[in-house]
């Protein structure tokens, strides 16, 4: 990212929490947030991956740390937020990038347990994360919650039943929290 863009988006003093950040889009988002000056907490299912990526993103101690969690396990998400608050502070930015496996195949052949697992990982636990950080954002009247989705979320595809609800979450949360200074996308 060029210097002019980083100056425009100066996040010095901000704390960002990014799930699914050990590779791909999540890693890139975490790196850009750190370049813009935010202290960043990255999360994924493997602590060694979190530690390696945190060191790659910022060799400066404390600018980027990794905390293991699993988007499919609500207890690890509660620990993630509590540990973030204890080690770094209350997040100003939440990026829900992690996602579980989507059901494969046509809707009429998707087993209920597979559907439930996808909805827990891809929808319900984003709500949990948002509800864990939003009260502090509302109290400060400032914050951003970003739910990553797929283009499939807007177009629909039979095997991607959990993507459209991810997109709707941010729309619904915007209606609830925007008057309190919390932006959602």
Task: Summarize this structure as a short list of keywords or feature phrases.
185 residues; alpha/beta; Rossmann fold; six-stranded parallel β-sheet; 7 helices; 15% strand
Strand content is 15-25%
pLDDT < 50 runs, ≥5 residues: none
Give the total of domains: 1
| CATH class identity | Alpha Beta
Radius of gyration: 16 Å
What is the ordering of alpha helices and beta strands? HEHEHEHEHEHHE
Give the termini separation: 21 Å
CATH architect. name: 3-Layer(aba) Sandwich
* Fold-level CATH name: Rossmann fold
CATH superfamily: NAD(P)-binding Rossmann-like Domain
Short summary:
Helices cover 49% and strands 15% of the residues.
Q: What does the model show?
A:
By secondary structure, the chain is α/β, with parallel strands linked by helices. The chain has one domain: Rossmann fold (3-Layer(aba) Sandwich). The chain has helices at 3-8, 24-35, 47-57, 74-87, 112-140, 152-155, 163-177; strands spanning 15-19, 39-44, 64-68, 93-96, 143-147, 182-184. The chain has a 6-stranded parallel beta sheet with strand order 3-2-1-4-5-6, with helices on both faces. Strand 4 (93-96), helix 5 (112-140) and strand 5 form a beta-alpha-beta unit. Helix 4 (74-87) runs parallel beside helix 5 (112-140).
